[in-house]
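Lab notebook, bench 4. Still working through the backlog of constructs that have no structural model yet. Next entry is a single chain of 107 residues. Request: give me the structure tokens for it.
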Amino acid sequence: MLQSENTSAKRIFFVEDFQIFGERYGIDYRFPQLKDEQVSGSPVLQGNVEEMTLSSGISLTHSDVRVLQPYETTSRHSSPLYMLVVLEGCVTLTLNGIDYPVRPGMA
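Model written out:
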């Protein structure tokens, strides 16, 4: 059974929103193209983000977004399973210093 935690209409997500996501999920976000004085109040994404928790406690996040400001993330916790599906665009994952680009159609 799915329990919706936060269903958002199409909106703009700011650096401050990412700080909240980071606290909730144990993720550090960096915005390499922003200078320190630009970080506060800067838009990062536009679109829809939906967070769900399964009855088993597994968290799911579905997003349909346009990236306005490139960002980098580092997980502060280990995760036994991380699944990423890219339908459009490209995401680059870096593990142990090796970059892995992920694009639509890759498995």
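Notes after review: Strands lie at 2-7, 11-14, 27-30, 43-54, 59-67, 72-75, 91-95, 98-102. Confidence is low (pLDDT under 50) at residues 1-8. Flag for follow-up if needed.
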